[in-house]
Amino acid sequence: MTWSIIARDPATGHIGIAVATRFFAVGARVPHIAAGIGGIATQALVNPYYGIDGVTLLREGRSPREVIDTLIAADDGRESRQLHVMDIKGRIAAHTGRECIDWCGHIQGDGFSLAGNMLAGGTVLDDTAHAYLANAALPFAQRLIAAMKAGEAAGGDKRGKQSAALLIHADEEWSDLDLRVDDHIDPLAELERLEQVSRQRWVHFRQFMPTRRNPAGITDRAIIDATIEAAMAGKA
Predict the structure, then answer these.
(1) Measured in Å, how far apart are the chain's first and last C-alpha atoms?
(2) Which of 30, 77, 220, 236 gives a 20 to 30 Å CA spacing to 38?
(3) Does 153 fall in a domain?
(4) How many angstroms separate the CA atoms of 3 and 114, rounded?
(5) Cα(69)–Cα(16) distance, rounded to whole angstroms?
(6) Within this chain, do residues 164 and 234 fall inside the same structural domain, yes or no?
(7) Is residue 142 part of a domain?
(8) Contacts of 74 (CB under 8 A, 6+ apart)
(9) Residue from 155, 156, 209, 163 nearest 183 by CA
(10) 18 and 59 both lie in a single domain
(11) 133 and 235: one domain?
């Protein structure tokens, strides 16, 4: 009932996951990222602990294959699950249970992984991959959305549309971008709109937030406002 892409931006090293489905609030359960380490998407009949425990395993230094083998070994429902994992080194592993609904499967490329189930056909993943590769010049968030829109144009979830999400992490434990469309007639179009809105103020503001290197961040509102205003004026 879902397809997703996990990718690493070659320009920045950021890890991103985009996902869409005919189900409510997909962003609340499918995408999980360990900043600077790797990403996990758990789907089909979702097991949330695949994401929760899988991120812990990645942080312990386990490979994607080891992560999946460990998770499914402890789950009697594994044949109804789909899971794919990519680490910061570009290593990829996937599991699609035998009881997942066709079309279901997984493909991988250089720096990205795709998986889907209950899709209109295999071309959904093929076209998602082709669009991701063809749009290398786009900023990372826009590239991920463009890839998902191509998959939707190929049929997407065979039941229709309802929710979509985009999660990107840089170096901090908090997300660089976390956009969720929980219930919408055209969720990927709405996700694209939200990403555009994020570039108005959020992408300029986030540089002032606390980090591990600078635990206080920048709290001088004059500096914050002036920087944001200058950035926005430069785009006018």
Answers:
(1) 41
(2) 77
(3) yes
(4) 7
(5) 23
(6) no
(7) yes
(8) none
(9) 163
(10) yes
(11) no
- Verify that 63 and 113 share a domain, yes or no: yes
Amino acid at 233: A
pLDDT, tens digit, 9 for 90 and up, residues 80-120: 999 999 999 999 999 999 999 999 999 999 999 999 999 99
Token pair, residue 48, equals: 């949330």
Identify the bridge partners of residue 32 per DSSP, sorted by sequence position: 40
**pLDDT single digits (tens) 18-77:** 999 999 999 999 999 999 999 999 999 999 999 999 999 999 999 999 999 999 999 999
- For residues 60 and 103, membership in a common domain is answered with yes
- The four Cα atoms 4, 207, 171, 203 give a dihedral, to 10 degrees, of 10
- With CA atoms as reference, report the closest residue to 43 among 92, 100, 98, 125: 100
Give the C-alpha distances (Å, rounded to integers) separating 183 from 21, 32, 162, 229: 10, 20, 5, 33
Same domain, 53 and 142: yes
Q: Which domain holds residue 226?
A: 200-236
Number of domains in the chain: 2
Give alpha helix (H) positions in the chain. Answer: 48-59, 64-73, 123-134, 140-153, 187-198, 202-205, 221-234
From CA 118, how far away is CA 23, in angstroms rounded? 12
Domain contains 207: yes
Q: For residue 202, say if its preceding peptide bond is cis, omega within 30 degrees of 0.
A: no
Residue keyed to tokens 């503001």 = 205
